[in-house]
Amino acid sequence: MSASPRPPTAKLSRAEFFTLLGAVFAVFPIVFCAMRVLVVSEGDPNTLRVLVQNLDLKTLVLATILPLGGTVVFWIQVTLWLFAYAGVTKPEYRRLVKAAFFCLLPITGAIVWVAMPRGQLLVCVGLLVVALLTVVAHQQMAEGKPRDRVTALGGMVFIVTVVALLISFVSNDTLWLPWETIEVKGRPTVDGYVLSSDGEWTRFMVSLDRTIHVVRTSEVKSRTVIDR
User: Fold this and answer.
1) Among the ranges 63-67, 98-102, 161-165, which has the highest mean pLDDT value?
2) CA atoms within 13 A on the CB side of 182
3) pLDDT (tens digit, 9 = 90+) per residue, 23-55?
4) Rounded Cα distance, 216 and 187, in Å
5) Cβ contacts of residue 225 below 8 Å, gap of 6+?
6) What are the residue boundaries of the structural domains of the chain, listed by start?
7) What percent of the chain has pLDDT over 90?
8) Exposure check for the chain: N or C terminus, fewer CB within 10 A?
9) Ordered DSSP codes for 51-82
10) Which residue, among 174, 186, 176, 190, has the nearest Cα to 223 in the 3D structure?
11) How are strands ordered across the β-sheet holding 212-216?
């Protein structure tokens, strides 16, 4: 009996790919902020509920996502470099990708130098070096082996790198609300995070014991951001 032919593998069209990519970018901030809230609550259900009730969502999203801007720009530049010099792009598009790489390089360097936290930069560079060394090592060891196996190993390294990057950022305390010294009338001065504040009430969490307090805004004497 002859083996039945394999059904053709379905491929995403360009429109479907960009739709999927847009959906990922739309959902990512919400998922990332939710994971940060879970990490800050340290698994305590009561703390988690109080955080959800008192957090200013707009402030949380901006304070959590904006510090990742430099990291996103860094990896976009790395991706352009891979597409330009790793033989991934078709020859007719390679010149355009190289032009984009060199045009964006000064902007990327300025953003990374000025706006990217040094801890994030070290993590990104370290993961990039580890990924490149791993791919090179696998390619050296894969002489005589099928090309698809090398490609699979490279894909595995890429996935591990992305997962490690996400874990390092989710557990990073700097990707959260500003750390402040809060002075309230009739209370000891504490270090913590202001969850929300309006004309009547201010809600803050003490960083030492993760307790959450609600005080009148008029009783808050000063708030000083602590430089980490």
Assistant:
1) 98-102
2) 28
3) 777 787 788 888 888 888 877 888 888 888 888
4) 12
5) 178, 179, 180
6) 120-175, 180-225
7) 9
8) N
9) HHHH--HHHHHHHHHGGGHHHHHHHHHHHHHH
10) 190
11) 212-216, 201-206, 190-197, 180-184, 220-225
35-to-11, 64, 168 alpha-carbon distances in Å: 32, 11, 12
Structure tokens at 83: 């597409």
Q: How confident is the model at residue 142 (pLDDT cuts 50, 70, 90)?
A: low
Strands 220-225 and 180-184: antiparallel
How far, in Å, CA of 222 to CA of 228, rounded? 19
What one-letter code names the amino acid at 192? G
List beta partners, residue 179: none
Average of pLDDT values for 213-220?
92
Q: Is the pTM of this model over 0.85?
A: no
Contacts of 19 (CB under 8 A, 6+ apart): none
Q: Is 182 exposed, middle or buried (0-12, 13-18, 19+ CB in 10 A)?
A: buried
Fold type of domain 180-225: SH3 type barrels. (2.30.30)
Beta bridge partners of 194: 204
